[in-house]
Amino acid sequence: MTKITTLLFDCDNTLVLSEELAFEACADLANEILESRNIPDRYTGPQLLNEFVGQNFRGMMVALKAKFKYEMSDEELESYVSKEEDKVIGKLKQSLRPCDGVDAELEKLAKSNKYQLSVVSSSALRRVKASVEKVGQDKYFDPNHIFSAATSLPEPTSKPNPAIYLHAMNVLGKTAEECVAVEDSKSGATAAFRAHIKTIGYTGSYEPEKQEQMREVLKNAGCVVIMNHWSEFESALKKIENDEV
């Protein structure tokens, strides 16, 4: 049996239903940039979400720049990154909800006292902390065990780069063998896989008609077990601990 000591949770659309709200704010800013370059294309929140799910805003801006072939200075990029953070946090503080069933599982995990619980996200640290605080999940996570690929690393990066997982394990003093990650996106699952962490894929935050497709995407990205609802988490974790997957 594998001794699992540490659980590493993605935040957006894994712990909290934040992606749709965040992408509304991102779309506003992306359209502002495109308009300022006289590029006629415009995005809605869902279109942006579909194209860039799992990426942080900085990663999205770099991808947009490459797609539409315009220039953007580092200073301008930084000003948009900080604008985006404020806009998104405003929306999250208004309307954020936890993913269905996650709080019951976090409560059980906290009571069991068997695992160290950590958040490993691509989003900015301020946004991640605002998210878990808004839904009352901050009581389950030591503030020093919340990691952001945009903020916690010497150089901002984004999943699917595994850097943030490697950094989190280094700070926590853990090996990949004793960790399990939970991810809802291809980029997140790929990052955990590249860090050699066994990963549970979560499809519950997707529309029902997209869940089957996401099962395959997450499997192909390296997830060893897939759950559709948080009520399946305990049995998913057991499969990993019993070396069944």
TrEMBL record:
GO terms for MF: phosphatase activity
* InterPro entries given in the database record: CbbY-like (IPR044999), HAD-like_sf (IPR036412), HAD-SF_hydro_IA (IPR006439), HAD_2 (IPR041492), HAD_sf (IPR023214), PGP-like_dom2 (IPR023198)
Q: Which domain of life is it from?
A: Eukaryota
| NCBIfam families referenced in this protein's UniProt entry, alphabetically | HAD-SF-IA-v3
Record protein name field: HAD superfamily hydrolase
